[in-house]
Design goal:
- It is a single chain.
- With about 100 residues, this protein is of the alpha+beta class.
- It has a single domain, classed as Lambda Exonuclease, Chain A (Alpha-Beta Complex), CATH 3.90.320.10.
- The protein is globular, with a radius of gyration of 14 Å.
- The relative contact order is 0.17.
């Protein structure tokens, strides 16, 4: 695809590749956030793959602490163990794995 596209276009391309490889996936899934047993809000994450892996897509050249914390929050909210942040950069796709140890 090249560089400098909007995140949503990379997301559509990733979905197409997941389909091509027959990997089960869901897009833009909500993750409920509760505090002391009461609902307080929703997060939405890009992909849940094979009901195990959260994939979050970004378009930038660096991994920020906010990106990592955001993915970690998704994992905790959904009680999942593994997430990947995929950054689409000028030099290719860079990935970072995030693990929920709780």
């Amino acid at each position: 695809m090249g560089i400098s596209h909007k995140e949503k276009f990379y997301q559509k391309a990733v979905a197409q590749e997941l389909d091509r490889h027959s990997l089960e996936h869901k897009e833009q899934l909500p993750a409920k956030i509760n505090f002391k047993g009461k609902f307080i809000g929703l997060y939405y994450f890009d992909f849940l793959i094979e009901n195990k892996l959260v994939l979050e897509i970004k378009v930038r050249n660096y991994f920020s602490k906010n990106d990592i914390n955001q993915l970690y929050a998704y994992l905790k909210a959904r009680k999942l163990k593994l997430g990947i942040i995929a950054h689409f950069t000028k030099t290719g796709v860079k990935i970072k794995r995030v693990i929920n140890l709780e």
